[in-house]
Write a structure and sequence with these properties.
134 residues, alpha+beta, 5-stranded mixed sheet
C-alpha cells in the first residue's frame, strides 16, 4: 500500500440544528463544531451547521483501520443516525488519503456492509506526494 497519511471524518450537516443538539442526540462530542454563520463570507458556513468527529491522531496508515474506528464509535447508534436524518441532517464519511505510489484506498465487503447498515456514504479526498525514497 502506498498510503503515507490518512484519517476519516464523520460529518453531519444541518440547516437548522445547532452542533450541540447533534451531540446530544448522537451521544458523542464533536471534535469540530461550526454553528451556522449567516454573515460568513464562505457559503457553506452561511448555509449549514457542521458537526464533525475524526480519527486523528490515530496513527495508522491503513485507511480501513480509520473507517473501522468510526464504525466502532457508531456501534449501536443506528437509530440516533436515523433520527438525525429524519430531522433533516445530512450524514456522511469523508476520508483524507495521501499516497506516494501505486495503489489507493479500498473497502472490504464487510466494511461496506457495516457502512450500509449505518446508512453512511463515503468519499475520499486523495493526494499524491512525490517522495524521493518512493
Amino acid at each position: 500500500m502506498s498510503c503515507v497519511e490518512t484519517y476519516v471524518t464523520l460529518r453531519i450537516f444541518s440547516d437548522s440544528m445547532h452542533p450541540d443538539e447533534i451531540s446530544a442526540i448522537l451521544g458523542i462530542d464533536a471534535k469540530d463544531a461550526r454553528p451556522r454563520d449567516i454573515n460568513s463570507k464562505y457559503r457553506p458556513r452561511r448555509e449549514h451547521n457542521l458537526w464533525a468527529w475524526d480519527t486523528r491522531p490515530f496513527e495508522s496508515t491503513d485507511n480501513l483501520d480509520h473507517i473501522k474506528k468510526v464504525i466502532k464509535v457508531l456501534d449501536g447508534k443506528e437509530d440516533h443516525l436515523d433520527k438525525l436524518r429524519a430531522l433533516g441532517c445530512e450524514v456522511d464519511l469523508y476520508s483524507y488519503w495521501v499516497g506516494n505510489g501505486q495503489g489507493g484506498p479500498f473497502l472490504h465487503v464487510s466494511t461496506m456492509r457495516s457502512l450500509c447498515d449505518l446508512g453512511l456514504e463515503i468519499g475520499w479526498d486523495t493526494y499524491f506526494r512525490k517522495d524521493e525514497d518512493a
